[in-house]
Amino acid sequence: MNIVARNTRGLNDPLKHIEVRNIAQKYNIHILGLLENKVRGDNISELEKAVLPNYSFFHNSEHDEVARVWFCWKPEEVNCNLVSIHHQAITCSVKHKDID
User: What share of the chain is helix, strand, coil (3-state, %, to 5)?
Assistant: First the structure.
């Protein structure tokens, strides 16, 4: 399973969308933590589809005016269950679908 955490320093720029999507595809990333995204709540759904269309997401938008922390995963490869979301952290339990 490939896991990456990355400081995006803002995810509103379309060039960042391409950069993140290319990294996820090139390295076959199963789980991706995106930090310092600074995405406003009304833009989250649109950016999820634009940046990583085949991923599922948890983010801390309920705890912050902007969603700074995103937890992204490939649902066809990984099962993720949310444990907790805080201002600076998201905790999940993770299980690869091919492992019992």
Answer: 25, 40, 35
Rounded Cα gap, residues 24 and 3, in angstroms: 10
Domain ranges of the chain: 3-96
* pTM to 2 decimal places: 0.87
- The top-level CATH class assigned to 3-96 is alpha beta
Check if the beta carbon of residue 97 is closer than 8 Å to that of residue 78.
yes
Cα 20 to Cα 27: distance, rounded to the nearest angstrom: 11
pLDDT digits (tens, 9 = 90+) for 31-51: 999 988 888 777 888 888 999
Distances (CA, A) of 68 to 8, 25, 56, 74, 98: 10, 22, 16, 20, 31
